[in-house]
Amino acid sequence: MVLLICASFVRVQRHNIFKKRLDVHGKVVNAPKPDAINAPKVQKPLQKHGGRLEHNETYCGSCFGAESSDDECCNNCEEVREAYRKKGWALTNADLIDQCHREGFIERVKEEAGEGCNIYGKLEVNKVAGNFHFAPGKSFQQSAMHLLDLMGFITDSFNVSHTINELSFGAHFPGAVNPLDKVTNIQKDLNGMYQYFIKVVPTVYTDIKGRKISTNQFSVTEHYTAGDHGPRFVPGVFFFYDLSPIKVKFSEERPSFLHFLTNVCAIVGGVYSIAGIIDSFVYHGHRAIKKKMELGKLS
Which residue of 1, 17, 197, 274 pairs with 121 in a disulfide if CB–CB is 3.0 to 4.6 A? Predict the structure, then answer.
């Protein structure tokens, strides 16, 4: 199963996201490649030609009824699938599409069965409520709804078991605890949807030298939905976050000399008191034992 990251309902400003394919044993299949969230599409020059590709002729593949204009071309399997997505049609059998059959799309999907992925990087977004998620398939918009195309997979079940190695909203500061670090969830059903509802709290940390770190803390609530619950059910891992109106400030301060002297006196006094108690206990114990020994000799 190949998981793709999708950023929805939130405008991604900049990102540095990488994906690595992993086999069933967790080993990297190929080198990591950057994801293309909100990346502009490259407009290819139109290649007009009908029918089969001949020598020294350009190729204009059919979109199989999904063309948005008479001169639109679909020269590979992905372009046919994209045309179908724009129409809102389901591509039920990709092997019947010439481009997909020629590229071995079905065989390639079968080869990737049982695979997973490792996704890492950073996202820079606006300071508004939003979500990001990891789900199988490719995302697209239709009728103001965010949908995922799952027709390219030869299965109705998706295993979205996952481990969150690290998740943070901002720079690390001393004493920070991220509640989702090292969290593992193993899916036990055919399909599952994991939802993490995150409350982000803006935080300012000031160290002893007066240097400030503007970052965030967060709390989280988990929810799991098993099985297929209709067309709105999408297998995947979803992170919904919202910003708290309250800001937390931490600051390091060096105690004054008077405070230090008071602590030293308290420590010395405590040691003296404990020493007196121990001395008294030993003294009275010794006297009691000595007295018993004297009474034993007299008798």
Answer: 17
